[in-house]
Amino acid sequence: MPADNHTFTLVITGAPYSSQAPETALGFAQAALRAGHTIDRVFLYGDGVHLASSLPSPPSDEINWTRAWSDFLQEHSVPAVACIASALRRGLVNESEQRRYQLPASNLATPFEIAGLGEWVESTIKSSAQSSRVIYFHGGA
């Protein structure tokens, strides 16, 4: 990789439809790839975990940000992880957590995964030679 190209880790803390964080982050990710950079991973934290819910059904004239992100992640083979503590607090569960807490359904969209903050930090440290920049997309005040 040439010296002027970077690998980015994106952290999204703002929810779709109540902040522009997911929209801005996706625009950045697409532009970064067009410029020859790499997106190493996406981490959802706080209200950002709402982006990984399979349940939103926006009106047909609005963008479905979960679907837009899912398509992007799958097309470019970018892993995306939702913080488990943030996810559980906000009612976002995968099948494993559904069984663990005996909940009636799971609602984690493909290809998102749920993991602990520690696991994410550890994976970031292991790939620090790869990720040259961590960019945060906050939900605002």
From TrEMBL:
<comment type="similarity">
    <text>Belongs to the DsrE/TusD family.</text>
</comment>
<dbReference type="Pfam" id="PF02635">
    <property type="entry name" value="DsrE"/>
</dbReference>
<protein>
    <submittedName>
        <fullName>DsrE family protein</fullName>
    </submittedName>
</protein>
<dbReference type="InterPro" id="IPR003787">
    <property type="entry name" value="Sulphur_relay_DsrE/F-like"/>
</dbReference>
<dbReference type="InterPro" id="IPR027396">
    <property type="entry name" value="DsrEFH-like"/>
</dbReference>
<dbReference type="InterPro" id="IPR017463">
    <property type="entry name" value="Sulphur_relay_TusD/DsrE"/>
</dbReference>
<keyword id="KW-0963">Cytoplasm</keyword>
<keyword id="KW-0808">Transferase</keyword>
<dbReference type="GO" id="GO:1990228">
    <property type="term" value="C:sulfurtransferase complex"/>
</dbReference>
<dbReference type="GO" id="GO:0097163">
    <property type="term" value="F:sulfur carrier activity"/>
</dbReference>
<dbReference type="GO" id="GO:0002143">
    <property type="term" value="P:tRNA wobble position uridine thiolation"/>
</dbReference>
<dbReference type="GO" id="GO:0016783">
    <property type="term" value="F:sulfurtransferase activity"/>
</dbReference>
